[in-house]
């Protein structure tokens, strides 16, 4: 079977055929038509075997995750997913593996009405690079640089679970954790849910937004740097999973939540006058949206507080080439 | 130095700042504005160390090539290059290497007025995935499926040189080749010139177009399959480099030209009534555009001819997962 047959067999036969795809897979380029008065949002992420996932990970879960982490970037801009390109490098032609991978990938694409419009299949060490394209109404994208001191800081879901899931897969003893919670954490790691509906609902409501793939504290740092302000985070307000707090102690649970990484939740800031909208969005989506602190004037620094007192908690985010890790 | 500092230091400081880039590097997504009445052309290609290039290749040449092979796909659609994303996976942080790579990459981006708008830097086995975006006026893209029997087949440049360059790097003895020709072939391999101006000029002139990265014969096969016709190619019309024919014999030079691969020339078909335009384009661009045969009615098969007689010449194109190689 050739490269071309491969692409045909597993990736060409997608159910979703968008009207704005003039040419999909099968020419030198995809040819795409943009809606009027929209801007194009584009993001690229690579997952490398042995770095971002274990070589023996379930290929269907990997297909899901490779797309989900990219859609999460669209969600963080408030963009609506549209098209995706997939570049996949494989050490050998394993059809069973590829079939499972494609099913995980395409199932998520279908869910969001995205069409796979191109890509490349190459031979080499296993890695996956996905480029997603979405639309956002002109001038309505959620960015990082328009937050202001006084805005409230919110986060979706329960960050830290994915990181705990990773530790469990690496052999962490977790005698205090129920089997259900353990599986939930592993699921959060392997099959994250991009917060597309929340991102779209936050257009015109949030003053800034980011997805916290690198860890809540580090990604909040990007908003602080871009918006030139500081932040107070109140540890007792963090949306911790009660089972986890019971099993591994409060301080460790806070550290997971703030620095764990690989969560694809949204962190966003909301001006006082828009706060009532957040309850509506949480209610509509069924996803907890929790206020964890507030932006303050001053240097782009994060201050952790417990009972309104400064609290010291060493944190480090995910950074491949940093000496800090 | 962290991943973020890296991106800043080598890739963020591009001279070209396009007005249609609302947000470039530094947010969850790039945010881009499309021109009116244009369609978006998108292509992705991966280069893997040890497969597409030698691990010790000059990083500046690699930076050039990684972008050039993608721009070539835009050229083949008749699209005008605009934006690019770069996902690069590196085994270690080698700043000297990265600086050279970035210079080669960005110099070509500048040449075409493209802006680097995003990407990802990860740790792992060396590989590079580039996604390019271009614009093409609505309905004017060059595709593969609209060629017709009777159309003439043209190719730009002198295909086969890149493939010979590869063989020279692999230690092919080439006593009959001048040092100049040897270096020229290696340059064609390592620093191909995407045919952007030719592609744009072919809008409204060519009936189909493709870039011949996989080898002339194999890529012509894609046009034949998509357009439901056959082709006659006349070997004596192939634009062979005279030095190469002298050194390695005519039949071998034909095989290099037809099946070599890694050429980023354009193969295109032209209706009889548009043929006069081709001379104008060749004259304006200074690139030879050579008529090598004609499309014929019938099965999507390629017939090779010499002095109007059938000629047998075993060929194989570049296909990573094919048993044929």
UniProtKB/TrEMBL annotation, chains A, B:
Residue ranges of every copy of the PurM-like N-terminal domain listed in the record: 26-136
Binding locations of Mg(2+) 5: 214
Function: Catalyzes the ATP-dependent phosphorylation of thiamine-monophosphate (TMP) to form thiamine-pyrophosphate (TPP), the active form of vitamin B1.
Protein name: Thiamine-monophosphate kinase
GO MF annotations in UniProt: thiamine-phosphate kinase activity
Top-level EC class as recorded in UniProt: transferase
Reactions accelerated catalytically: thiamine phosphate + ATP = thiamine diphosphate + ADP
Positions that bind Mg(2+) 1: 44-45, 120
InterPro entries: PurM-like_C_dom, PurM-like_C_sf, PurM-like_N, PurM-like_N_sf, ThiL-like
Note: Reaction mechanism of ThiL seems to utilize a direct, inline transfer of the gamma-phosphate of ATP to TMP rather than a phosphorylated enzyme intermediate.
Family statement drawn from the similarity comment of this UniProt entry: Belongs to the thiamine-monophosphate kinase family.
Enzyme Commission number(s) from the entry: 2.7.4.16
Binding site residues for Mg(2+) 3: 28, 73, 211
Species in which this protein is naturally found: Motilimonas cestriensis
Record HAMAP family: TMP_kinase
Associated pathway: Cofactor biosynthesis; thiamine diphosphate biosynthesis; thiamine diphosphate from thiamine phosphate: step 1/1
SUPFAM superfamilies in the record: PurM C-terminal domain-like, PurM N-terminal domain-like
Positions of the PurM-like C-terminal domain: 148-301
Key word Metal-binding present: yes
Residues noted as binding Mg(2+) 4 in the record, renumbered to the chain: 28, 43, 73
Residues where substrate binds: 52, 262, 318
Keywords carried by this UniProt record: ATP-binding, Kinase, Magnesium, Metal-binding, Nucleotide-binding, Thiamine biosynthesis, Transferase
């Amino acid at each position: 079977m050739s490269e071309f047959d491969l692409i045909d067999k597993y990736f060409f036969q997608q159910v979703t055929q968008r009207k704005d795809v003039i040419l999909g897979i099968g020419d030198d380029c995809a040819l795409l038509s943009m809606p009027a008065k929209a801007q194009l949002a584009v993001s690229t992420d690579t997952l490398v075997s042995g770095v971002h996932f274990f070589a023996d990970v379930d290929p269907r879960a990997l297909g899901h995750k490779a797309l989900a982490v990219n859609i999460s970037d669209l969600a963080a801009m408030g963009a609506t997913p549209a098209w995706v390109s997939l570049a996949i490098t494989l050490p050998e032609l394993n059809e069973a593996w590829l079939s499972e991978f494609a099913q995980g990938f395409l199932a998520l694409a279908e869910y969001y009405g995205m069409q796979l419009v191109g890509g490349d299949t190459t031979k080499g060490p296993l890695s996956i690079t996905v480029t997603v394209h979405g639309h956002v109404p002109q001038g309505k994208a959620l960015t990082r640089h328009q937050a202001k001191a006084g805005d409230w800081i919110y986060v979706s879901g329960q960050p830290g679970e994915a990181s705990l899931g990773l530790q469990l897969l690496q052999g962490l003893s977790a005698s205090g954790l129920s089997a259900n919670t353990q599986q939930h954490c592993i699921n959060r790691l392997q099959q994250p849910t991009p917060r597309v509906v929340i991102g779209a609902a936050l257009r015109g409501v949030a003053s800034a937004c980011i997805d916290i793939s690198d860890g809540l504290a580090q990604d909040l740092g990007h908003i602080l740097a871009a918006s030139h302000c500081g932040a107070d985070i109140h540890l007792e307000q963090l949306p911790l999973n009660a089972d986890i707090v019971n099993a591994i102690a409060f301080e460790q649970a806070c550290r997971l939540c703030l620095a764990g990484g690989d969560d694809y939740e949204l962190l966003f800031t909301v001006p006082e006058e828009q706060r009532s909208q957040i309850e509506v969005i949480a209610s509509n989506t069924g996803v907890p949206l929790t206020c964890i602190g507030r932006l303050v004037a001053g240097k782009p620094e994060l201050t952790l507080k417990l009972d309104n007192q400064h609290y010291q908690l060493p944190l480090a985010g995910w950074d491949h080439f940093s000496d800090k890790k």
